[in-house]
Design a protein that fits this description.
The protein has 20 helices and 11 strands. By secondary structure, the chain is α/β, with parallel strands linked by helices. The two termini are 25 Å apart. Bound molecules: iron/sulfur cluster.
Length: 472
């Protein structure tokens, strides 16, 4: 669809109407588009996300309504098509749909097992460089950015970045403490293009045990404040061996649904960063349990929840579960290094002396995208914990070096245990994939209606040509 004043007015008008019709009528209206997504669990997620936005719409502040509709539905999903096609025609691959930037690795907390604690604490990534990365990304149709760290709100100039790029949507992972300290909730809602996702480890006991006393109550107060101001916000929870079951319990999900979260993100603890500990990872059996619980909770709850590892069919991109290497995203660190993924902390290039496109075409990124073609099971997506040999191959043959201090462990000392872990999980994931995903797809049942993952939906809305380009 062309980006014109009329199409923007139409989009806003249609959203206003959609917010007031019954859910069932709304779902039947969006069904033709949702059916373009291949997997039923991914369709469940998108339906939940759209319905949750629809339900919350009435309480949202005018700026949030305007920015969310124009920037996400408009710029990222509808109007980006031309830029995506131009990029694909020129470079021979589809551009990523989002940028992840860590503007700082400084943090007010000292959480055990933090994945980023060994990064250098100096912020090489200045305002102008962040501005350039986002500007370059938009040329390729990337209107969605994830900001992480460190604690992003330590950087006072980040609000200026969000303001300057008011045609984008920013999802910001935060512990919340600096939002409270600097009274930023009102500014966040007034800008309208920021979705803070607050990190929790469970309830108060588990969150404060890892993050420090009082952090959970700070997050609760901020959620309440953002809610009363008309903002959108979510939670993010990292699963470890200790909290894996708790964070997918009915009590936990119901609690954050009642808090009116817009979205809930789950991450698997990864043996990287500060004191990497494979023993802290959920076991393969626990990981499987979490995935099954999340799929089943999506059938019975209103809160859209998604797991970065267990939901390759949902969070993936271009028909692949792994987003690394520019398939779905890339990660620019505060030091300027560009990692293929937040959790694959090896680099060959710095954004300080290269453009985004040069890095997307680098041997490191190209090889990662090539190797992803081998992963036919979207339940085993990860080159760190599911396919550690791929990571070793990629690092060895491209000369990539660690982006964090130390940092070689995933390709050296931890290698044998990661191999064991991957083999154990493969025993669970292979039959599950063959019986519940691959089989139905091949026999042409309703499991295989469209193409691609829910992640593709971000650029696919109204774009049938893109659908044809997807690998499945
Ligand atoms: S490397 Fe692992 S963590 Fe990174 S995008 Fe791929 S699957 Fe996800």
């Amino acid at each position: 669809m062309k980006d014109t004043k009329l199409s923007r007015t139409l989009l806003q008008g249609l959203t206003n109407v959609a917010a007031h019709i019954p859910d069932s009528m709304f779902l039947s209206m969006v069904k033709p588009q949702v059916d373009l997504i291949q997997y039923p669990d991914a369709r469940d997620f998108i339906n939940l996300l759209l319905l949750n936005f629809k339900r919350q719409y009435k309480r949202l502040a005018p700026a949030v309504k305007k920015r969310f509709v124009e920037n996400l539905f408009g710029n990222a999903m509808l109007f980006a098509s031309e830029k995506i096609h131009a990029f694909t025609d020129t470079y021979g691959f589809i551009p990523p749909s989002l940028t992840v930037i860590s503007p700082t690795f400084r943090c007010n907390l000292k959480c055990y097992g933090c994945y980023s604690a060994n990064y250098a604490q100096d912020d090489v990534l200045d305002f102008n460089t962040i501005d350039r990365i986002l500007t370059e990304g938009k040329q390729y149709g990337m209107y969605f950015a994830v900001i992480t760290g460190g604690e992003p709100f330590i950087r006072r100039d980040m609000m200026k970045i969000f303001e300057k790029h008011n045609d984008m949507i920013f999802q910001v992972y935060t512990n919340g403490v600096y939002i409270e300290r600097d009274n930023l909730a009102k500014d966040i809602v007034n800008l309208g293009n920021i979705i803070p996702c607050f990190s929790v480890e469970g309830f108060e006991e588990q969150t404060d045990a890892r993050r420090g006393k009082g952090v959970f109550q700070t997050v609760m107060a901020l959620m309440d404040e953002l809610n009363s101001l008309g903002g959108l916000y979510g939670f993010s929870a990292t699963a470890t061996k200790e909290n894996n079951e708790l964070i997918v319990s009915d009590e936990f999900v119901d609690f954050f649904e009642q808090k009116e979260c817009f979205v809930g993100w789950y991450f698997n603890y990864m043996p990287i960063g500060r004191s990497p500990a494979i023993d802290l990872m959920p076991t393969p059996q626990q990981r499987h349990f979490r995935g099954e619980r999340i799929r089943s909770l999506r059938k019975t709850r209103q809160l859209p929840i998604v797991d970065f590892w267990m939901d390759g069919t949902v969070a993936g991109s271009q028909g692949h579960a792994c987003l690394a290497g520019g398939r779905g995203y890339f990660h620019v660190t505060a030091s300027g290094h560009v990692d293929p993924c937040v959790f694959v902390q090896y680099h060959t290039d710095s954004i300080m002396d290269k453009k985004v496109i040069d890095i997307l075409r680098s041997p490191l990124f190209t090889m990662i995208r090539k190797r992803q073609e081998e992963y036919t099971n979207l339940l085993r997506p990860c080159m760190v914990i599911d396919r550690p040999q791929v990571l070793r191959d990629v690092v060895a043959s491209t000369g990539a070096v660690p982006s964090q201090g130390g940092g070689w462990e995933t390709v050296t000392t931890l290698g044998p245990r990661l191999d064991d872990y991957a083999r154990e999980y493969e025993k669970i994931a292979t039959p599950l994939w063959d019986n519940e995903y691959k089989g139905p797809k091949e026999t042409g049942t309703e499991h295989h209606i469209g193409n691609g993952t829910a992640g593709d939906y971000i650029n696919m809305f109204g774009d049938k040509v893109k659908k044809k380009m997807l690998h499945t």
